[in-house]
Automatic annotation (TrEMBL):
Keywords: Lipid metabolism, Methyltransferase, S-adenosyl-L-methionine, Transferase. Belongs to the CFA/CMAS family. The lineage of its organism: Bacteria, Bacillati, Actinomycetota, Actinomycetes, Pseudonocardiales. Residues 140-401 form the Polyketide synthase-like methyltransferase domain. This is Cyclopropane-fatty-acyl-phospholipid synthase. It comes from Pseudonocardia cypriaca.
Length: 409
């Protein structure tokens, strides 16, 4: 059987892109502007052991499959065909068909495919999982994220807003929801490179502490705090949120941490944040979510093994229920799904503009991982396969006082 026909079996017979294979076979419309090029039988060996998206991803990041055109355009064209992996019956049939190729060309998964050891969501394992993704290279992230070094969804006033404007607007939106004022104390858990901490200190006179499990992030953030002259107000520590100071803060922001917690740990997670808040203190939880209750809790296997080991996404209703059951009164909820698609569009553009430098810094395979995952994530937000929600809660004071005005945040 010709190689292009085999790939069509994986993607579907009505695949809307060109498929060009090393044996000279072709499939799909000749007039398509984008194509998948199957360069070596090793790509088929990948599909034999991992039919569907994981096998295709392995072949792409190792250079055994090449994309002719923009990766996003290819994924967008295939979106309706590849949103779900093959059925078990289809996987078995494909594996049998490819067994002879696998015998001759089998190989281990790429070296940067990672599953952290230890008990799920223990402090040691969480540290390894976070380090795998965030301790890649600060310089690499500077090229992708831009000057803000914000690795979370921005907030665009218009589609013409720059990424830096949108990231500043995101931090200010969080600050307004938390009603930050001079002299207040803010705890930012999972603080990344310290963007929220520095914004709170510089723009609102807040004494802000950020904690992150990434040593690279903490070192970069602390150096930037000193460079900006914010050391009197801002600090970032290399620390698990569970080990953050027990003193009562006036506000807590969690921007992009909940995805790493796991459903079973949501009660203890929100409980830890609740204990650290003073009465009438506010929590803003900003996280990627499932658009509906999933049949399975597993992430896409490519994302789980290459990008966010141990990551888990929950429906926003589960997050709200967990916050509410912990004791928070929910005051506001907002879906920023389209904003994250725009954010990822800018990150993808940054990566392409710095492609040669990025490859030199982290290697071709890892750069391909980021190119693929960011393009796929952009498509996921556009197609409502994932969402981004901000949920604002308050720890009620005496006689259920919230400290909220009658209108507004």
């Amino acid at each position: 059987m010709q190689v292009a026909e085999i790939i069509s079996d994986v993607l579907g017979q009505d695949v809307p892109i060109r498929i060009v294979a090393y044996d000279g076979s072709k499939a799909g419309p000749d007039g398509s502007d984008v194509a998948l090029k199957i360069l070596t039988p090793r790509a088929l060996a990948r599909l034999a052991t991992a039919p569907g998206t994981l096998g295709l991803a392995r072949a792409y990041v190792t250079g055994e499959i090449e994309v002719d055109g923009d990766v996003y355009d290819v994924l967008n064209a295939m979106a309706d065909l590849t949103l779900h992996d093959l059925s078990r019956k289809e996987q078995v049939a494909l594996a049998r068909k490819l067994f002879p190729v696998w015998l001759r060309h089998r190989q281990p998964p790429p070296e940067f495919e990672y599953r952290p050891p230890g008990r799920l969501h223990s402090k040691a394992r969480d540290s390894k999982a976070i380090s795998h993704h965030y301790d890649v290279s600060n310089r690499f992230y500077e090229w992708v994220l831009g000057p803000s070094m914000a690795y979370t969804c921005a907030v665009f006033a218009t589609e013409d807003s720059t990424l830096e404007e949108a990231q500043a607007a995101k931090f200010e939106l969080v600050a307004q929801k938390l009603a930050l004022r001079p002299g207040m104390r803010l705890l930012d858990v999972g603080c990344g490179w310290g963007g929220m901490v520095m914004h709170a200190a510089a723009e609102h006179g807040v004494k802000a502490l950020g904690v992150t499990l990434s040593r690279n992030q903490a070192e970069w953030a602390q150096a930037e705090i000193e460079r900006r002259g914010l050391s009197d107000l801002a600090e970032v520590r290399h620390l698990d949120y569970r080990d953050a100071p027990e003193e009562q803060f006036d506000a807590i922001s969690s921007i992009g941490l909940t995805e790493h917690i796991g459903k079973a740990n949501l009660p203890s997670y929100f409980g830890a944040l609740y204990r650290r808040l003073r009465p009438e203190g506010r929590l803003l939880n900003h996280s990627i979510t499932q658009p509906r209750t999933p049949l399975t809790r597993k992430l896409d296997p490519f994302i789980a093994r290459y990008v966010f080991p141990d990551g888990q996404l929950e429906p926003v209703g589960d997050i709200i229920s967990a916050m509410n059951d912990t004791g928070f009164e929910i005051r506001h909820e907002e879906n920023l799904r389209e904003h994250y698609a725009l954010t990822l569009t800018e990150w993808c553009r940054n990566l392409e503009e710095h492609w040669e430098e990025a490859v030199a810094e982290v290697g071709l395979g890892r750069a391909r991982v980021w190119r693929l995952y960011m393009a796929a994530s952009r498509l996921g937000f556009e197609r409502d396969n994932i969402q981004l929600h901000q949920v604002l809660g308050v720890k009620l004071g005496d006689r259920a006082r919230s400290g909220f005005p009658l209108r507004g945040w």
